[in-house]
Description:
By secondary structure, this protein is of the alpha+beta class. It folds into two domains: 40-143 and 205-317, no CATH class; 149-198, no CATH class. It is 29% helix and 23% strand. Strand 6 (65-69) and strand 7 form a beta hairpin. Helix 9 runs antiparallel to helix 10 (285-299). It is globular and about 80 Å long. The two termini are 24 Å apart. Mean pLDDT is 90; it is low at 329-345.
Amino acid sequence: xxxxxxxxxxxxxxxxxxxxxxxxxxxxxxxxxxxxxxxxxxxxxxxxxxxxxxxxxxxxxxxxxxxxxxxxxxxxxxxxxxxxxxxxxxxxxxxxxxxxxxxxxxxxxxxxxxxxxxxxxxxxxxxxxxxxxxxxxxxxxxxxxxxxxxxxxxxxxxxxxxxxxxxxxxxxxxxxxxxxxxxxxxxxxxxxxxxxxxxxxxxxxxxxxxxxxxxxxxxxxxxxxxxxxxxxxxxxxxxxxxxxxxxxxxxxxxxxxxxxxxxxxxxxxxxxxxxxxxxxxxxxxxxxxxxxxxxxxxxxxxxxxxxxxxxxxxxxxxxxxxxxxxxxxxxxxxxxxxxxxxxxx
Length: 345
């Protein structure tokens, strides 16, 4: 529930307009009840959880691969598209990752796990190159049910009357007030009202975080035909998944959306079997971390390293994309751009 209480206002994620969607909050159906409102998407949740492995007690579990561009450093754990991110293609890791993705396509995920193991936990799609795609093992989303959409208004009042100081004329002032596109309004020289803006929602139903660790998907990971290496790989990725799955989740999502547990609605943590049976699960975070640590030692964590961002690679990548326009891509017609559905942002 919102930190303000059951009837508190919370601010869902907003999305850009497109494909018939007008933009704003994602509420289905857009009018009437009952409805479902997306508070935090599966991609956004993954990107909140993944940096956990940068923390001191977890960093030994995965290689710390950092791309350095001038004074700026970005850990691969912060890259929205993980091993498929443009940032990595624009470094000396490009060829190594390309080989790892090609190996994945042939049924060997071990090379990818040595470079970017969380790409096997949270999913990855090398949509700009090999088209290698791995599903998420850990998924998490937050929804609110039966929401009432609110609006809000505000007005900016300048501290001085700049027209009285002959910065501009009274006529210019009159034209600019209320015109958000006016340079005077944009620069904060005149009154600038804002009405009907997104004001959050009130959820009359539950606000629920649903998280799943898909063991069925885990069984699709292989290290070629080597049964021993495959077992070590699966245990390693399972350990990372359990750590991510049982870690304390972030309750601050954005301004106006801090969520806390509702003491009157206890959480459910269960094992779900193919026949539909549901049994209580009691795996604690400490036990998950202990298992993950042993599994990481047995698998052999990949090399941590810092590599430079290479501007020339980036330029070539952009040129290659321009050259590819008008060339048929898998699943698309000539001239269509592929869409990355890894949801990195």
